[in-house]
Amino acid sequence: MAATTVNEQITDAVTQSNVKVVGESPAMALSNVYQSAAHSTGIMFENAVNAQNQQNILTQAATTQGVSQIYSLDTIADAVSIAKILNP
């Protein structure tokens, strides 16, 4: 078998592309880390907003229930008996 030689322009091009890929690797890795952190932060804020909405719904329901109970005291006798319970 005869030894074959490769044109120097080809070896230079392959070497340069390998150097380019190796040189860009740290930047690509760090950009992936930043993108992952931004995505996680976005999900965290979405969860916080959802929790606040749920808390607001719960607060409104409790307020509505409390007002409903206040309005259900239908007679002055109820008010007098409650006053006697609260002020023995």
Task: Please outline the major beta sheet.
Answer: none
Helix and strand composition category: mainly alpha
Show unreliable segments: none
SSE order in H/E notation?
HH
- Beta percentage is under 5%
* Global Rg: 37 Å
Mean pLDDT, nearest integer? Answer: 86
Number of strands: 0
Number of helices: 2
Structural commentary:
It holds the Pfam family RebB. This is Antirepresssor protein RebB. This protein is mostly helical and 88 residues long. The chain has a domain at 40-87. Helices cover 85% and strands 0% of the residues. The protein contains 2 helices and no strands. The model has no long low-confidence stretch (mean pLDDT 86).
Keywords:
88 residues; mainly alpha
What's this model, at a glance?
By secondary structure, the chain is an all-alpha fold. Helix content is 85%, strand content 0%.
SSE blueprint and pairings:
Elements: H1 8-71, H2 76-86
